[in-house]
Amino acid sequence: MAHKPRSEMIAETRAKLLASGRQAFGTVGYAEASMDDFTAAAGLTRGALYHHFGDKKGLLEAVIAEIDGEMSERLRQVSAMAGNPWQGFVDECTAYIEMALEPEIQRIVLLDGPATLGDPWQWPSQNACIRSMTDSLQKLIDAKLVVEVDPEAIARLISGASLHAALWIANADDPPSASKKAVKAFNVLLEGLLKDRSRH
């Protein structure tokens, strides 16, 4: 039987650690997750974890990056299904806030992430999010759908509002109720960008 290429073995080891770490962080939380437990679950050693991610915190960063990538793809699909560019933008922003109700996202990204890694504004994913939203807003401005305003400034304000809404939901005593309130208020804010509100 032929041996797998080294690059394939490295990728498999990394994927196993990511999956077991994600499972542990999502079920018992970062603080309670034992490195020995999730390396054993992956059939690997602590040495493999240190080699690929540095430490438990490095693994959390990688898990969050993986979840963030999945969220971005889901949001892209939500936007693509809308009937027009403005509705796609609104639906995408709304869907992001509503994702705060999902247990895995809530626990790993919104609760343990900031508690362990610090301010989410410093995370690499935030810069990518701002760039993407700035591009979307520029297209809406070019199409004369929204008012003339600096797209990066608005992107940062919208991103900040949606992040704080998600954090509010994740930390709320009644997350579903907080989500409904947040989505309703957020949509009122977004409507203020429209050039012709009577058409929407």
Automatic annotation (TrEMBL):
Pfam families: TetR_C_41, TetR_N. Residues 34-53 bind DNA. GO terms for molecular function: DNA binding. InterPro entries: Homeodomain-like_sf, HTH_TetR, Rv0078-like_C. Keywords: DNA-binding, Transcription, Transcription regulation. The keyword Transcription applies. This is Transcriptional regulator, TetR family. The lineage of its organism: Bacteria, Pseudomonadati, Pseudomonadota, Alphaproteobacteria, Hyphomicrobiales.
